[in-house]
Amino acid sequence: RGENVPLNLLQEEMVYQWSKKKDAPKPGVTEKYIEDPTFQKNFVSDFSKAFNGKFKSLQYADIDFSIPYKLVDKEKEEKELLTKEDKKALAIKRKEIREEMKTKYGKAIIDGKEVEVGNYMAEPPGIFMGRGDHPMRGRYKPRATDKDVTLNLGKEAKIPKGNWGKIVHDRDSMWIASWMDILTQKRKYVWLADTAGIKQERDQAKYDKARNLSKEIESVKTQIVKDMQNKEQKTKRIATACYLIYRTAMRVGDEKDPDEADTVGATTLRKEHVKLTENEIQFDFLGKDSVRWKETIPAEGHDKQFYDNLKEFISNKKDSEEIFDGITSRHVNAYYSTIVKGLSAKVFRTYLASSVVSKYLRGHDNIKSESDMKKMFHGKLANLNAAIMCNHKRTIPKNFELSLQKKKDTLKNVEKTKPWEKSEVLLKKAQSKIVKTEKQKKEKNERIKKIKTVIRKRKGKHVERIEKLELQINLTEK
């Protein structure tokens, strides 16, 4: 405050990254991120450390961001003033750079075969946002350097240039590089792409486990229902938690770090997250990634026993106390394994999600003669149904409505057009042409045939484009 302080590269980068967030809105509220006191406090705490103790008592109000804010606004204005041609040229240039980088870094040799690498770029430095009211929101996330990175290479592989933290030869893992995120203290990995054969084999094994569960599901359910009435209280609590996972596809719940936002799952539900009415069980809480989980289950059939157990477990408990106290994912997975070897809560969720996809696809098995686009659409809808069941959600982009309306406007405009009109004029002209010789007659017929082919293709592409836009709009509105 009142003092001009020259910034080094790190300090300047931190201020610039903060300024880029100045207009970012917080989901579900009217305030912006930079107006959030926790967001401000966390940033200032990290920013002051970059001055090596010179500004220990630095406050957010002491910092004048007007110059970097103007810089960010100017960059935004310049971007908006770009012509259509300039934007196109930039897009082409970016694509060329991406392709060049993919060629250089996007491939690996596994057992003598070239395979694609998935995420070969480390996350850039920036302001940590998190999901929901994450306690670390606003903190500065520094860049990873080669000294932070561990490479997983074959013993005979040539080590790339760089001052690498460590070189390992782990043949049983599918990651080829890893580093510790300094801020979150979570290890990040560079994995093989989903197209890699070895990756697909692992995925196949995962879904085979889920498929095998379908043969045992009735016996699993029977055992869980039976144990929900077990006289031994711990077994009763474990079985009830397992029934909850079976009934709702809820995550097990205790697999988050203590410094993450207050999110819960099956084993960590508290009394405040469940409401029991006369004949219903109502769940309302924040699940993984701070996504709200809201679901109501009628207390009927086996759900009546589930209802009675929950009622028993929450009696005489405070709102802040866990329903399944003393039960963890370890207990849940150990219990599942006593019924079916290798069964876990994760396999159970995979089975439930796969069942939803399979059910949808079986119900739409009459689309074999439809276009590839329509088949792809139904495949995405099947996955969407599974995502809904698993409570997977993404934050709606701020320009969602505008983007959707643009698609609808494009559809209306495309429907009005007839790209084959000029060809129809040419066809009429060719058909009306008077010919005298056999050669001219042959040329005329060939000309007519050629124009008709062009018309047919253009009509076909027009129908395909309309169908594609309709399906995109339909999927977006889901």
The radius of gyration is: 30 Å
Query: Beta fraction of the residues?
Result: 5-15%
- Helix/strand-derived category reads alpha+beta
Shape verdict: globular
Distance between the termini: 50 Å
Q: Give the averaged pLDDT, no decimals.
A: 90
Reported for the largest beta sheet, the result is: 4 strands, mixed
Which CATH C-level class of the largest domain is it? Alpha Beta
Number of helical regions:
13
- CATH fold annotation of the largest domain: Topoisomerase I, Chain A, domain 3
Helix-residue proportion:
40-55%
Describe this structure in words.
The chain is built from 13 helices and 11 strands. The chain is of the alpha+beta class. The strands form 4 sheets. The chain has a 4-stranded mixed β-sheet, with no helix packed on it. A 3-stranded antiparallel β-sheet has the order 9-10-11, with helices on one face. It has a two-stranded antiparallel sheet with strand order 1-2. Strand 1 (about 105-110) and strand 2 form a beta hairpin. Helix 5 crosses helix 9 (about 345-365) and helix 10 packs parallel to helix 13 (about 440-475).
